[in-house]
Amino acid sequence: MTRQELESRIGQPLGVSDWFLVDQARVDDFADVTLDHQFLHVDVERARATPFGGTIAHGFLTLSLLVHLCLPIVPTLANRKLVVNYGFDKVRFSAPVKVGKRIRAVSKLGDVSERKPGNVIMRIDVTVEIEGEDKPALVAEWLSLHVVG
User: Which residues are 107's β-sheet partners?
Assistant: First the structure.
């Protein structure tokens, strides 16, 4: 897809990911990698006594899963050599993801701009839904840098 074709799709939905199960093993692994072992995430017994009624995923785990959830639905620019995360304009963690729940990403194309020749910034407006819940886990404006040439 050319940049001009992509620009014509600004504001349009990109797609919805498959559901993804957030299990305790993944939360524990994330805690080990990030050295964030807060009991809300890793101590099932203690977490049962909290208002959450059990362990919850780290917000940053949910955020980091955007790559897995969204990569299949992010448009591919013609002549793209590589794509890298460029950051976020906004991230809000709206609701906790209880361990054992499934999440999915719903996204639309927010913006496309050229940073410099051959460097295209794509903004994806994404909401991570929690199966069976009214509030989303997070809402973000995610930026990626696409090097074309």
Answer: 15, 126
